[in-house]
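Q: Convert this sequence to structure tokens.
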Amino acid sequence: MPEDPAMDIPLVQLIITLEFIGGEIQPYGLFILKKSFPAAFRRVTGCLKADGSCGAGPDCPCRATFEQKLTPDPAALRRYQKPPLPFAFRIPVLPAGIKPGSCAELSLTLVGEATNRLEIYLATVAALFAAAPRNPLEMRCRKIEAVAGDGTRILIRMDGGSTDVSSVPLLTFAETVAPYCTSGETVTVELQAPLRLLHQGVPLRELPFPVLAGALFRRISSLAYYYGGVELSHDFKWLAERSRLVACSRSDLVWVNRGGGLQGVEGKVTYRGELDEFISFLNLGSLLNVGKGAAYGMGQYRFHRG
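A:
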């Protein structure tokens, strides 16, 4: 990814350490966040109506977060279509038979203007994972840390204590992608949650590289436009052509149905070719996920090169 002033879009990456408090929870139980997070956010802002919608005016923080308002610019609308949500959870798959006291890490990345509402997000997470009786998520928040550009974690909340946001590091797209500099002719992508991409309305069971790259281009450029207020200057048409030169050398993908709408492909896929132009998009995507339901942990992956 070449240098681009527009890559100064801010990011905040949070790591939330959760402790299992007992009861029954399935390996994919935390993916219920898709249903519980919006209502919890609205309770924190005080705008929650009985039907679960926002009862406040157009300036309510929840509208800027969940409304996904389309741009009035017809040309931009053709390029970006419906805006994504301005955040992305990376949700842990819990081990079967998890015992009370066991911990897992939940990641939450805020993009662009969403970073200005950091305290609302933190209060929402604290409310969702309070150590109250009959917590439906069966997990309580032990601590919340913010991740710096060098990977250092900065504690901003411990157990039920107060939250200190004064030292939260503000990252940028550019800082996030810069550290990744390893080389190699192959890259292996390991899907950690179902990935669902559609072609002509049909979910794909394989993942050709141009399809993955195109989905990343659309997601990252849309986040930049709608929440960073900028258009990335990359030549996406040229990148799309280059992506067709990258071949799939091995695929161990399988179609899974985890219940609760969690359907898609999981497994590993290895690509071979000229990959340098795509590594930074892959790195950003490893924070922001890809495909349907990306904001709530669908399509989360990790990758390695060489």
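The chain has eight helices and 13 strands.
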